[in-house]
Amino acid sequence: MRLRRIVPAVIAAVVAALTLTAAPAATAAAPASSASAFAIRGGDPLYSDTGAVCTVGFNARGGSEYYGIMAGHCALGSQTWYADPARTVVVGVTRRVSFPGGDHALIRYTNSEISYPGEVSIGGGQVRDITGAANPLVGQSVCQVTRTTGMHCGTVTSLNATVRYPEGVVYGLIRTNLCSEPGASGAPLISGNTALAVGSAASGNCSTGGTTFHQPVVEVLSAYGLTIY
């Protein structure tokens, strides 16, 4: 499922102080740590049994189990997830979906032959190590990584935004001045090595500019007792 191309309606925003986080140099992607040819990172696509193609925002851990966090609207109705477009390598199953209201889903990884690094793919075989999560502040420098347009950077323009989807209303989103294109559902929003959010909705495009809305990741981690590693 593609990122919804809707014109968002912002109902409320909370102003916060300015903070900037420098972006460290990227590193080359390491090979999978198992015999499998697959490693699933944030920014990588997963393929569902319904035909949906959704982006993993971030990998997280809860106890001995590993999860992928993605956009809830993209995971609706999907149960089994695959690592490959041919849908031959099962990677996991849907554990939770929150949409509307929120916009996130948890995919529980079940294939121990695939590695799940705590990294984000940023294009060109490069990765960014993600070491933690935080709530952003208005004015903060952020970057979004999509599998269709690569990395784009900008700033947070407001918090607690509300977007109306055909299925209902989603609350508490982060609004940025980043552009986005179809195929960016769940795309990771980062600041340096810090996970901030996953892509939810957008207006405009990367030719003329636009506005993008994101589901905060801290509240997802807190709700299910997960950590970014």
Automatic annotation (TrEMBL):
Q: Which CDD domains match?
A: alphaLP-like
Q: What is this protein called?
A: S1 family peptidase
User: What keywords are annotated for this sequence in UniProt?
Assistant: Disulfide bond, Hydrolase, Protease, Serine protease, Signal
Looking at the keywords, is DNA-binding present? Answer: no
* Similarity-based family: Belongs to the peptidase S1 family.
Signal peptide range in chain numbering: 1-28
